Records
---
Amino acid sequence: MERSLPPRKLDSLLKPFAAVRAGLNTAFKSARSGMPLPDGLTSAGTTRTARQQRRNGYLNQYLRYFPERLAEAKWMDGCRITGLERLHAARQNGRPVVLAFCHFGPFFLLRSWLRAAGIPAAILVGGKPEHRSKLTQLFYRFVPFPEVPTVFYLDRLRDATAFLTAGNPLLIAIDDDSGKQMELPFSEGWTFRMATGAVRLAVRHQAELISCTIIDEGCWRFRIELGRPVPREFLTSESDWTCAGEHLLGEMIPHFRAHPEQCARTLIGCLRKNSAAAAPDVTRMVD
């Protein structure tokens, strides 16, 4: 069906199945249920809106089943990438690139769309290879650049750094709860707990550190935003790394505020409400 139908018709055909699944999945809970959020991340959501978001999420999952097809013109026309010249410039200058992302929008499609655009990106994740389903591992073989790994696990960090220093972009989540963390100001009365892995890798390997955000615009149309690279003076062993973290967060927050419904629970879980006593100290490192 994917080969014979344009994306819009395929979307219309699969939408009822995704809608049924969204309606039946009553176990799904909104990340915002019963918890306060910073101004700008709250939305007047309804049950219908939440169900539509779940439906769109299930529709986006279908794209994982044919990653090699996303490079076709009919699919690439539905994915705009802003700031791609920054990534190309870094690679042309022989500089490694770390792409920092959050669990926002259809983040699981980031590496597939980047590969479809000719960028052999991979992702660093926690866990071990055997924890991934056989089906997922099978689909990894059909992405563009199949000879280039698509995923690295923390227990094989040496392979990931070799991949990075060879000039390939490496995607790393900054809203992960593993490893060292730092707390950054998010908005008045709120902080964001950020994993430092992306910053530390960029410092260690003198890599460009660029924010990477994907936005779901509906009907299988997406936008990937590659932010301004973190200034080099923020990425030295002597610098205050919170400056690098604040730069990354500053590039992403406007997208969070524009599309609060696309903030995943992992991202929401990094937000902390300041107590009066803790408010002055919001950039401390956390082990």
---
Amino acid sequence: MAKVPPPGTPSLVLGIETSCDETAAALVVRNPDGSGGILANKVLSQIDDHAPYGGVVPEIAARAHISHLDRLIKEALAEAGKTLGDLDAIAATRGPGLIGGLMVGLTMAKAIALGTGKPLIALNHLEAHALTVRLTDRVAFPYLLALMSGGHCQLLWVENVGAYKRLGTTIDDAVGEAFDKTAKLLGLGYPGGPAIEKCARAGDPTRFALPRPLKGRPGCDFSFSGLKTAVRHALETAETKPPSAQWLADLSASFQAAIADILAERTGHAMTALADQGRLSEKTGERRFVLAGGVAANLALRQRLSRVADEHQFTLFVPPPSLCTDNGAMVAWAGAERLAQGLTDPLTVGPLARWPLDPDAAPASTPAKGTGVKA
């Protein structure tokens, strides 16, 4: 049986992330008082490999993980001045994600755990995003989490490690997917989020009257497919073809503004619902709102959600941009958080392409094809 470090001692955890198109390894230490630090954080982006296809190709991603993961782990250990024998646990993403990539990372973690006799922690990728802010800002439980990444778009009430209640999710595409698909339509390149944000800086966000799906409806669920359709229609009916740079900038800005409005309204609904349910303290400082995932790096969206937080007397916390996108440090930290509670996994555990943080959550309020896939 793997040996768990005794209570009241610091823990050193290796984190491995291979759920999509970043190959990552990191070492994180967690202290008994809940504070922690990153000793090494190595991330290899595969953007150049996938850019010609306008999206992630699973086979290419898995092969890249196989080629680079071993080297990244060695580099992380060397940078931290540690050896495999110094580890207290090995954490790896079990899911959700691309099954081929998950198999690579989880198999590597199992091999290290078996060889060192240290515990394995097979993590939910979404939990790693959810807990990152506890490393960077020592945010206490509970808090409202807006998890916005390439494949996920959810509002969650985070009560503790392993305790998550989903308040809302997308009924079609995630917000990151909406950015990627829209950028591809406009010929702006991949990944779509940074491309649209850059193009939108020179644009007029009021030029195009794009829809805000589900606006005015109760609940906290999201929808973005109608917005993408409207962008396609604007492109097809443009007077000048190809459109001018200014036209593209205006449409990008209008699209980004619509996304911001959608996120702001649904997040506001969640904040109101939490207050109505009596889950929030009367003290403003105890109304905590966390924005996590790659979309959190978008300054315009972050500023809009900051205003929503102010309106509802929430304090906004956002991890640094480098820890919003997929990385090994968030996996290592979540592993350390689970280890502190004695939560480890057997070596027989397998990868999961789909793995909701809240398995008891009801289906989205407006069922659509694919509902629940990203949940």
---
Amino acid sequence: MNDEKDVDLMRLVNIGLTTKWSILGIGLASAVIAFSASFLFTPVFHAETLLLNAPVEKRGDNILSALGSSGSGLAALAGLGGGGDSNTQEAIAILKSRALVDQFIADGNLLPILFDDRWDAANKKWKSKWWDIFGSDNPAPGADKAYEKFNKQIRRVEEDRRTGLVTLSIEWSDPKLAAEWAAELVKRANALLRNTAIERSEKSLDFLNEQIKKSGEVEVRQAIYKLIDSELKREMFAKVNEDYAFKIIDPPTVPEKKTRPKRSLYALFGFIVGGSIAYALALRRSTWVRPARL
């Protein structure tokens, strides 16, 4: 049985050796075709920015331990409860959110750029598809399509929970736009989080000032003053820090080298596929016949 397997293996090797030039030629031809085909694909460039997800000042945790039960209750009513971890996750969620992307696309009028194959730049209108004869709606892509493309193909957010570092990357055919979009998204996320924090502080301060007017107890009033002082500091922190939630460690730069297509891999894949097909055809053409088993 082993001798028969050895003979079969030798025959397979011999077929490969006798047709090696044909296999090599077809493999090289396939590599050239695959390499040439890679030029049909739009080059994609990768721009990224490295961010430090700086913990936003804790809302009330730094003073709750110093307050009595009444002060702690007022802090909760004023919205001063949550800690740094919840704020950190809120920042990541905002950076990944659809609301941020939808507003970014709308403000920049990016639909004609995202779907340039469907945009008639000369006539400033969307191209009709063949199925429009069946009474389809406006050929312009909707917000769902735009977000799906941006979220799945263009933007990526990766978080390292151990270090607190966040990487925002953009992949697009225009390297300059890729870098600009990455920077703009970070700027918008910080601005949104800053404005939200300022609004929270203003509402909390309004509430606490009302409580001072109503309360006559010295202990409660002292607790309220501590809460007001802490909230004023947080409000000032938000107003003066543009990098409120994300501090830029490495700003996005315009990439010089494309990410894909990798033409060398296309050529290698073409060579392997072409060579394999050539060898399979050589086996089929061969006069090799398995010895009959008795």
---
Amino acid sequence: MSAPLPRRLLVGAALASVAVGVLVVAGLRVVQPRMQAVSVEEQMGAIDAEACETDPAAWGWESGDISFFAYDRDGRSLNPDAPPLDADQLERLSNEGRPVMSTPSGRVQWLVPRAADGPCALVRVTSKDVQPVVSPRIFRVLLGAILTGMFLAVMGTFLLVVRPLRTRIDRVAAAARSVGSASFAHPPGTTDALGHITDVLARSHDRIVASTEALEARNKALERHLAGVAHDLRTPLASMHLALEALAAASEGPMRDEARRSLADAVYLSAMVENLHQATRLRHEFDVTSGTVDLTDLVQRIEKRFAIVGRHAGIEVAANTPEDELLVACTPALAERAVSNLVQNAVEHNDDPGHVAVTLTRIDGGRRFALAVVDDGPGLPPDALATLQSETFLLDEARRRGPGMGTLITNEVALRAGWTVRYRALEPTGLEVRIEGPIVDEDGPAAGA
């Protein structure tokens, strides 16, 4: 709910007292000179200043702290009893053109212009107390009361308004930061503007949670669907490979060329289906390092597969691997996709006759591996090579520019597995792709990691 009415009245009264106090102090400062001038004019009215014109040398009077004498514009008096004028006060009157006051020796002294010229042009009036103003003691008490009221008003405003308001704002900010998460807590309901904001946050949280749950359900269903499609297509595509391979080997002329092109399309279709399946897993933040794979066995199997495909395309595919196991932390299916995509690209983008070499070695004293895929094809221009180096499958901008999905998936798998991927152009033609990463010991943890 909004602030109670008594609190509002208290805050309003405090603010009003501050405003009144400021106005009173300012008014005293502004009105005081005018009140003093009026008082002097009243006292001048009781003096027979016209008699000064008859006998200026004898005009004047002094008794104790009260006196009055006449002077010309230069500050000279014909009355020998007249005291000299203060030069600063005379100069002030000349500059301001109105009565000026000074307080020498605790007395109040006024210098009042009376005529434009002559021995009675100026009249000096002294008095012990001629200004009808608030006494210093009363003024100090009033000022102290005003300052005390201002202090209490400020403290009351802070305690009753600012601090509770800040506490509520902090609660709303905390709720805003946790919208859509399990830690979201609806702040207490109110009917003011902050209350409306918290209600909007609560409704947004409910919508986000519902949308997230629905999206996760759709993603899981899509993943299951793609996995099923990939599984269902794997067997017929394998049979198609064998049939097209046999047809390409047994046919001649144009028929053989068509069989080879069909075989290449079947290989591409099989890789695309598998890439779509693995891409869905990567989009769900799948843990790439959830398993281990023997790269020696993997590279040998990939060599056999693409040696057959390459032979019909006029591309020789060969691999060189260690004799023993070489284990790395990576899900087998994703590791196979990462390496297969590189070999497939090297075969598809090479020219007849061409060569593709896959080399797997141990480096850094056997703690790390290096896998290189080298071809002698046309390669890539420098700008495309630099762009390919920094792209992964999850970059929407990269997918819009059109790099092959297989290469992007390879980059993403390597990034999550802690591997490095480098693309290097060869001279005079060709491309080298080199992957390096830690090796897993037989006991489990990665060596040198």
